[in-house]
Each structure stands twice: as structure tokens, then as C-alpha cells.
């Protein structure tokens, strides 16, 4: 276990598996032949602060939408934030820096931990208890000519609860479009077609 002196964030890892302490539970993720992925544990006060920054980002995005003409306006702030966070987790250099600046975040570790806390809570299906039935299909489709780093695949699976599929965009774009739309339709009970 390592402490980051700049923030009160613990980084936990093991060589053959990665431990994720989230909401007082320890989840062990087995990874084969991959380097350990540092996965942060963020204290509650930092999660609250991250939620506040997420809301600030959402308002910056929403302002032009709500100032535009038209009657029907809808925005899923968590969906946008999570997608941009996932993109940040898969980038590096200036692109990552720009995304972190826009998302008002110090690191992708912080964004990943926020996603790990947001996805199960906000997008939980409450229909069995008379609550709303929310769907949040989260997926990543990458051209088969590109490699997905195993460490990024762990982040996609564990933090974002997303699928990562390799497809042939170059020669089978229409089939990929149909596959993605069918997947979204299935995962949302037909709400997205």
C-alpha cells in the first residue's frame, strides 16, 4: 500500500491480482500476465468534492443547451462525465491533460474511483423496489487493427463496468453499427434503438 503525499489517497495493489476497496468491500480482480494496475481508494470527502466538480462540469456543458431555442432538452450528466473519464483513462500526454482540465480532475485515478462509486449507485435498477429502472450500457468498440492494453481493459471492466470489443470498422462498418445498436437495444430493454 502506498500513500500519495499530495492527497489522502491510498493506492493498493498486489502482483498477481488487484484489490479494489470500494464501499468497505474488497473485490479481487485476477489479471493474467499484466502489470499491476494501481487502483485508488478515495475517502468520502474527496468523493463528495468530485461529485461537486462533476456537477460544475455538467452545468458548463448544459448551459449552451438550455440557452438554445427549442422545447425538448435532456442531458445525462453522469453519462457524459463517465464517457469523457473513460476516454481520459485511455489517453496520455496533452490529450489526457486537456480532458483532466475540462473534467476538473487531478488524475485519471481520481476519475476511475469516482466512476467506480457512481456506476453502481446512480445506475442501479430500483424497479424491484418501486423505483426507477435506469439503464446505462457502457461500451467501447475498438478497431481490430489496434491493441487494447491489458491494464486499460481492467480499468474498463472494473471501474466503468463497460464492455470492450474489437471490431472491423475498416471493412465492416455497417455490421459494426448494427451490432452496437443491437447491443444497446438489448441492454436498455428496447429504450435505445
TrEMBL record:
The lineage's top-level taxon is Eukaryota
Pfam families with a match to the protein in the record: Serpin
GO CC terms in record: extracellular space
InterPro entries xrefs: Serpin_dom, Serpin_fam, Serpin_sf, Serpin_sf_1
Native organism taxonomy: Eukaryota, Viridiplantae, Streptophyta, Embryophyta, Tracheophyta
Report the Gene3D superfamilies cross-referenced here: Antithrombin, subunit I, domain 2
Q: Name one GO molecular function term.
A: serine-type endopeptidase inhibitor activity
Annotated protein name in UniProt = Serpin domain-containing protein
Tell me where in this chain the Serpin domain is found.
54-193
Which organism was this protein described from? Malus domestica (Apple)
The text of the family note is:
Belongs to the serpin family.
Amino acid at each position: 500500500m502506498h500513500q500519495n503525499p499530495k492527497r489522502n489517497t491510498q493506492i493498493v495493489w498486489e502482483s498477481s491480482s488487484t484489490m479494489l476497496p470500494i464501499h468497505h468491500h474488497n473485490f479481487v480482480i485476477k489479471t493474467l500476465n499484466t502489470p499491476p494496475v494501481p487502483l485508488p481508494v478515495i475517502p468520502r470527502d474527496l468523493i463528495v468534492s468530485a461529485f461537486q466538480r462533476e456537477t460544475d462540469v455538467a452545468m458548463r456543458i448544459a448551459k449552451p443547451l438550455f440557452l438554445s431555442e427549442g422545447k425538448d432538452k435532456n442531458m445525462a450528466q453522469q453519462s457524459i462525465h463517465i464517457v469523457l473519464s473513460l476516454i481520459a483513462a485511455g489517453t496520455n500526454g496533452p490529450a489526457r491533460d486537456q480532458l483532466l482540465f475540462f473534467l476538473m480532475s487531478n488524475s485519471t485515478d481520481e476519475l476511475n474511483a469516482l466512476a467506480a462509486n457512481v456506476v453502481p449507485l446512480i445506475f442501479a435498477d430500483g424497479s424491484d423496489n418501486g423505483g426507477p429502472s435506469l439503464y446505462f450500457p457502457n461500451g467501447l468498440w475498438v478497431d481490430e487493427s489496434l491493441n487494447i492494453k491489458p491494464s486499460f481493459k481492467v480499468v474498463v471492466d472494473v471501474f466503468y463496468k463497460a464492455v470492450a470489443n474489437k471490431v472491423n470498422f475498416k471493412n465492416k462498418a455497417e455490421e459494426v453499427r448494427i451490432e452496437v445498436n443491437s447491443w444497446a437495444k438489448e441492454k436498455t430493454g428496447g429504450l435505445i434503438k
